[in-house]
Amino acid sequence: MHRDSRPMNDYDVVVIGGGAAGLSAALVLTRALRQVGVVDAGQPRNAPAAHMQGFLGSDGMAPRELLARGRTEVAGYGGHLVSGRVDAITPHPAHPDAGLMSFDIRLDDGSAMRSRRVLVTTGLRDDVPDLPGVRERWGRDLLHCPYCHGHEVRDQPLGVLGGPPEALAHAHLIRQWSHDVVYFTTGQPLTTTQREQLAARAIGVVDGPVARLVVEEDRLTGVELATGQVVPRTAVFVRPRFVPNDTLLTDLGCATHDNGWVAVDATGRTSIPGIWAAGNAVNPRAQVITAAGEGSAAAIAINNDLVDEDLPLAVTSFRLGLPL
């Protein structure tokens, strides 16, 4: 596996982000005999999680193991893996007379790469409540995704922290996995209808602000209210605010949706020719298996795009009797 700090200069595709989406794309592209570079900062979103669930054929695998296998596979097909962070992407005229562009990718160590296409798979970060215990338990027994972790905490005393509008719907969803669910309003008012709906599904309601998560012997045991009351719970779900790591895309001027997220088509193509994006950087709902699929779809589209670009150049060379 290539690990040197001075990567090759020229690539067909540079993938920025070495998670499931990025490595899946790199695997498809290297198998298509493309020159591929993958730049990764080594900070995957699911790093706190001990196991990855719901990924067909890899259920229960540690996230770090999946990525390690992916890196080995990509390197085995000739992919070039670079540890680092990308500071900027700059369009660069490749064949001005043909209207073609390439991209200069500048890394935080001062090195640079040049590529015909760029795929951004930099993920997102979870903005969680600023409460004592929250960040320490994140991904362990303070959870977000019931489809990722619900089965592992099924039938246990569960809590759901209120706050954002989606939190109430989250509580009804969590109820699928346990008969003992408590919704903590965190001081946010509930309507009569909302309280009736919670009561109809036997979801308990605890009003008032939450002070902290109670942790004993490295495990969550309850939720403490501002009054000092402790409600015993063994796991708590929260609906974080998703913040995309999309600065590289927005700095390029990629078009966005009304909600501020960068817009892509079904293959991950952005509004900037030559720039693709996949995974959580543009899709907050993408799980690991979804992100891998989006990376694969983007890779196929990128390779097809490169073939389409090469065709008229090949015809011109053929007419001039030049070697391909």
UniProtKB/TrEMBL annotation:
Family matches, as SUPFAM superfamilies: FAD/NAD(P)-binding domain
Domain (FAD/NAD(P)-binding) ranges: 11-294
Keyword set includes Oxidoreductase: yes
Catalytic reaction(s) noted: [thioredoxin]-dithiol + NADP(+) = [thioredoxin]-disulfide + NADPH + H(+)
Signal peptide positions (record): none
PANTHER family: THIOREDOXIN REDUCTASE 1-RELATED-RELATED
Name by which UniProt lists this protein: NAD(P)/FAD-dependent oxidoreductase
Organism: Fodinibacter luteus
